[in-house]
Design a protein that fits this description.
Layout lengths: L14 H19 L5 H53 L3 H19 L4 H15 L2 H11 L9 H21 L3 H30 L13 H10 L3
């Protein structure tokens, strides 16, 4: 059984990923012949693997940390894009005008809830707002219908009022999601997916070189530390 396949000093030029691949290839061959190897061959093979992994462990760990920083920065940049898009959306509204429309909507809902047929009254208000195509009227009514006003309805109407509230909540989220926010969310989703995939890969490499699972609650190695720092970011 050939034990010479584990990384040697000449493999350093492959980079840390190349070294990891060499270890994986060697492990695969080692395991292939394990059942027919003598005790001496097994012992020598395990010792060689241990020594070679130890020789390159610091290089591999440094490479993993560098790669993690790269993908973490992608996520942070995506999150910053989302924050800027959300701030832009918030600043796009005239707060004074919106406050006035919300106050009016609140009073109209209160009056409707005290009538014999509050559901029809509120439905009419929703249609009126939609037909006006005034985003302030539409948002104000949606905001109020997802708030506490609906709780004033009598029990017999509460199911219908709650259903209206859910519909308006969906409308509210739609009207408050700008094109820039949608674009930023797509970028963020891709960054999160890439980060999670890379994190899983780095975890498997950590275990390959004997560093254990960095996601274990009691893990204290360098990779577990940067994972925790990233998860606890503001």
């Amino acid at each position: 059984m050939d034990m010479s396949r584990y990384p040697s000093r000449s493999t350093a030029r492959l980079g840390w990923r190349g070294i990891v691949n060499k270890i994986k290839e060697s492990d695969k061959e080692f395991n292939k012949y394990w059942s027919i190897a003598s005790d001496m061959e097994k012992s020598k093979g395990l010792e060689k693997r241990k020594n070679q992994v130890a020789r390159y462990k610091s290089v591999i760990i440094e490479g993993m940390l560098k790669e993690h920083r790269s993908y973490a920065k992608d996520v942070q940049r995506a999150e910053e894009l989302m924050r800027l898009a959300q701030k832009e959306e918030i600043n796009s509204w005239d707060t004074s005008k919106l406050a006035g429309e919300m106050d009016l909507a609140s009073k109209r809902i209160d009056r409707a809830l005290k009538t014999e047929d509050p559901v029809t009254r509120i439905n009419d208000m929703v249609k009126e707002a939609d037909q006006s195509k005034d985003k302030y009227k539409i948002r104000a009514l949606a905001e109020e219908l997802t708030g506490e006003g609906k709780q004033m309805a009598e029990f017999r109407d509460r199911a219908d009022i709650n259903w209206l509230s859910k519909v308006q909540d969906k409308k509210l989220r739609a009207i408050r999601t700008s094109d820039r926010m949608k674009s930023a969310q797509e970028v963020a989703n891709q960054a999160y997916d890439n980060y999670e995939a890379k994190k899983g890969d780095l975890c498997s490499i950590s275990e390959l070189i004997g560093e254990g699972d960095p996601l274990h609650p009691l893990a204290t190695n360098d990779l577990s530390r940067v994972f925790k720092e990233f998860n606890n970011r503001a």
